[in-house]
Amino acid sequence: MRPCPVRSPDQVDEAGLRALASADLVALALPREPAKVWAAALLGAGARRVLDLSDARRRDPEAHYGLPELTGAPPAHARLVANPGCYPTATLASLRPLLDAGLIEAESIAVLGTSGASGAGKGLADRLHFCNLAGNSFPYKVGEHRHVPEIEHHLGAPISFVTQLLPIVRGMLVTSFVKPKAGVTPSQLREALEARYAEAPYVTVLPQPDQGLGLGHVVGTHQVLVAVGPVERSGLVPVFASIDNLMRGAASQALHNANLWLGLPPSLGLPPPLAELPRGVPPTFATALSTALSTALPTALNPETATP
Ligand SMILES: NC(=O)C1=CN([C@@H]2O[C@H](COP(=O)(O)OP(=O)(O)OC[C@H]3O[C@@H](n4cnc5c(N)ncnc54)[C@H](OP(=O)(O)O)[C@@H]3O)[C@@H](O)[C@H]2O)C=CC1
Ligand SMILES: CC(=O)N[C@@H](CCC(=O)OP(=O)(O)O)C(=O)O
């Protein structure tokens, strides 16, 4: 695909920038630096709502951090929403409720994140060369992953964090080892997650980690799947989360935030929650159907565009 010719707000005249800024909401799916420049220019031009998918503003106290089930709807007065990163989404969704409930120690959390290649976007690092990645799996960005400060900031606890690439296109599985407080059982951890997500159709707490946590169950959906394992011999307990990095880790989470911010039905345009899928329907089929319907229906129902 040819690159977009407009690379910076300087290339747009004042009227053009004002026209862009007059939208109900502008979503920026750009790398960090251009996202910073465009957000500043749009807000300066009076934009009412800017939703940034990059990591530029995720620890900015002036931005609302948009992980709907944990941080709620963006306040009406907010002008900037920072869409969380993919690893932070899975890690925070599975661990924050346990820390909030005071059930695990904050000092000894170790997290292993595994992800497909699309998490890196179009930037073709050597490690993503087909011949290097196909049939391979390896750690990357060890000791320097930019999601560590983001996760620690929103978790309120230090973490050890390692990421590994998988030779797949999309999907992410995060495994955290946590130390329960004295006397706390894995069942209590699971119950705390169930209680926290009782009213959250897009987060599913599985009864066992080996019952449906696989990437095949989440790719193409907006779902977060979480599960708690048994106590290991070390005394630590594994807590799991899987998501689609491109959907819940980026695009569908942005849409979920936009719906909440604009006061629209929260699931507008999102694939159906997993629990609502008929048994045996692959999530990717359901996503395609939902996308087709949400695009086609408004057109069909609009008297100006409907074909008689
Ligand atoms: N992929 C993922 O799983 C996730 C991504 N994110 C974040 O979301 C953002 C987008 O990610 P992703 O779509 O994967 O990234 P890509 O690298 O695939 O795409 C980035 C896009 O930004 C455009 N772009 C780059 N520089 C400029 C510029 N100066 N002006 C205008 N357009 C520009 C590129 O356009 P062109 O093609 O014309 O060069 C390209 O379409 C990033 O900040 C990323 O970190 C967040 C969570 C998960
Ligand atoms: C495979 C791969 O390289 N993944 C990326 C995920 C980056 C990402 O999702 O970017 P955000 O910070 O905008 O969330 C990484 O680990 O850095």
TrEMBL record:
What keywords are assigned to this protein? Amino-acid biosynthesis, Arginine biosynthesis, NADP, Oxidoreductase
Q: Which Pfam families match?
A: Semialdhyde_dh (PF01118), Semialdhyde_dhC_1 (PF22698)
In this protein, which residues make up the domain named N-acetyl-gamma-glutamyl-phosphate reductase dimerisation? Answer: 86-245
KW Mitochondrion (keyword) present: no
Q: Which GO terms describe its molecular function?
A: N-acetyl-gamma-glutamyl-phosphate reductase activity; NAD binding
Q: What biological-process GO terms show up in the record?
A: L-arginine biosynthetic process
Ranges for domain Semialdehyde dehydrogenase NAD-binding:
15-71
Active site, UniProt feature: 86
The protein's name in its UniProt record: N-acetyl-gamma-glutamyl-phosphate reductase
Q: Which organism is it from?
A: Plesiocystis pacifica SIR-1
